[in-house]
Amino acid sequence: MTADDHIVFIVDDDARIREALGELLESHGMHAAAFESAGDYVTADKPDIPACLILDIELPDINGLDLQRQIADRDHPPIVFITGHGDIPSSVRAIKRGAVDFLTKPFNDADLMAAVHAAIAEDREKRADRAERDKLRQHYLDLTPREREVLPLVVSGLLNKQAAAELGISEVTLQIHRRNVMQKMAAASLADLVRIAERLEIPITHSRRVGGN
Asked: Where would I find the HTH luxR-type domain in this sequence (predicted)?
């Protein structure tokens, strides 16, 4: 991990904490950006790279748990909470909402760094997953309207003859569309195409009929 391929955001209203955390992270070769309020963090321009958010619970403008809830439906860095007034209900709520850790001040530097590394690794994985889904969505958009009708029938397990009858086309035409779908979706096998359909959450409304030919 190099300092230019990630960033750690620090949101804490205590300047001494921000400075100490910044120095700690830099001593581990990590780049950090610090903010004294949730509002400053939310409105700041942020680089599109793997990140971690070290977030204090008690902030001057909003509670850290409330900020976690407000940004839950956005793409945001995994959160490591720090607080001088920790309690079990708050920590449970934070973890249930996806926080990587909940540390009470004064915390051990090693515990914080372990949580930060885990958060950045999690964000890298989430970004890779989003990138793959975006690529699959683009492949799907490249399909013709007819090919988009063929795809769910194929992954549902219908035989070519059954799928062709469903669409009112010949079996040969169905096979051509099926081959195009496989190629455009970059699917190496039917099982791979099924996995792709699941990733894209394509509705499957048909199932193979027992005894079909």
From this structure: 136-201
